[in-house]
Specification:
about 260 residues; alpha/beta; Rossmann fold; seven-stranded mixed sheet; two-stranded antiparallel ribbon; globular
Length: about 260
């Protein structure tokens, strides 16, 4: 990086009463740590604030989200705050519930932010709120696999795939969906011009969660094989493996899967 400091990117994290407090404040903490936590840990030069992160809500007044966690928004959508990035974190929504009709002013504001040039990211069930805007119609998206039936029935125009760790929905990479908050935070750091150091605290958390997720998948698959008396499929490129690509290999143009 050159010696000239860049102004921090403006980031808005959407909060509503249905928000999951851990996702909301976890993303706030991770992005606020970018540019300073790693530098402090390894004594690697001056700290730099990469993001100015604020919480935006429909009304702007304090409220409590899921599990009674207090939220103190920095601004309201009525203030129409500008930001380069808008994040829709996880919401507490059952797979048989609907987001239709909830917070219509917020949905309109999200669409307006996108039209004005902001990049949108969702984490986990936040993709449902993003789908409600209609901006995902005809595009690829990901979220927790538990929402695949909801997307199929309520948002059939969205090409939903629970497999990727990260999915850029459009060729311009201005809409991204992720199944977990840490992957969404990683996408935000990659969006920053000049890209932060790959060994930053944010990237370390991303790699750790990705490794844990992959390990969990492998353990779950092995357990299923043992339960049903089946042999594990050989890994691609090894003897006996099939040349047929995996379902996540065939992806629409502009989509990106983190691995």
């Amino acid at each position: 990086m050159n010696g000239k400091r860049q102004a921090p990117l403006e980031v808005l994290i959407v909060a509503v009463p249905e928000s999951a407090g851990s996702a909301l404040y976890g993303m706030l903490d991770v992005l606020s740590a970018a540019g300073n936590l790693w530098q402090t840990l390894v004594r690697a030069g001056a700290e730099q604030k990469l993001f100015r992160v604020r919480i935006v809500s429909p009304a702007g007044s304090p409220f409590r989200c899921g599990n009674g966690i207090p939220v103190h928004p920095d601004c309201s959508i009525a203030d129409d705050p500008a930001a380069s990035i808008v994040i829709l974190p996880e919401i507490r929504l059952g797979p048989d519930e609907s987001w239709n009709g909830r917070h219509p002013d917020l949905i309109d504001w999200i669409k307006r932010r996108y039209r004005d040039g902001a990049t949108l990211y969702s984490a986990c069930s936040g993709a449902v709120m993003l789908a409600e805007t209609g901006l995902l119609d005809g595009l690829s998206a990901t979220s927790h696999w538990g929402y695949q039936d909801l997307f199929r029935t309520r948002y059939p125009k969205v090409r939903f795939d629970p497999a990727p760790n990260l999915c850029y929905a459009d060729p311009g990479a201005r809409i991204g969906t992720a199944p977990a908050p840490t992957f969404a935070a990683g996408a935000v750091t990659e969006k920053r011009p000049g890209k932060p150091d790959r060994d930053s605290s944010v990237q370390i958390r991303i790699r750790s969660e990705r490794a844990a997720r992959l390990s969990f998948r492998r353990r779950s698959f092995s357990a299923q094989c043992r339960r049903h008396g089946k042999r594990r499929r050989p890994r691609p490129g090894t003897a006996g493996s099939s040349s047929r690509p995996s379902p996540s290999a065939a992806r629409a143009p502009g989509a990106f899967s983190g691995g």
